[in-house]
Model the fold of this input.
Amino acid sequence: QVQLVESGGDSVRTGGSLRLSCAASSDTADRCMAWFRQAPGKKREGVAVMDVEGRTTYADSVMGRFTISKDYANNALDLQMNTLKPEDTGMYYCVARFRRPWDPCMVFSDYEKQSTDNNWGQGIQVTVSS
Done:
């Protein structure tokens, strides 16, 4: 298992930018990584995924505004968020998923399954005000 700690959350105005970071306790080279978020009173949703080869996928709502990336030097996962909107407000979670040979890693719902393959951080708050 890997422990994950998110940082970088803050309160910003509409149109602003934030960069979230997720520090991992061990090497994540064999893990697909993802960011999820949950707004107050809403269902948790997937934001972005990066597989072990570096391929990415994004939720439609953040496409073109958010960028997921790996900081290999620091064993961290980042999420650059630009042109933020009030609807981006919520708790943001980092997830590490152990990659199985048959797993494409690109299905958001797979990260929410009860499995020892999935490790979640505690979350960090992002607030965007108009």
The first strand starts at residue 4 and ends at 7.
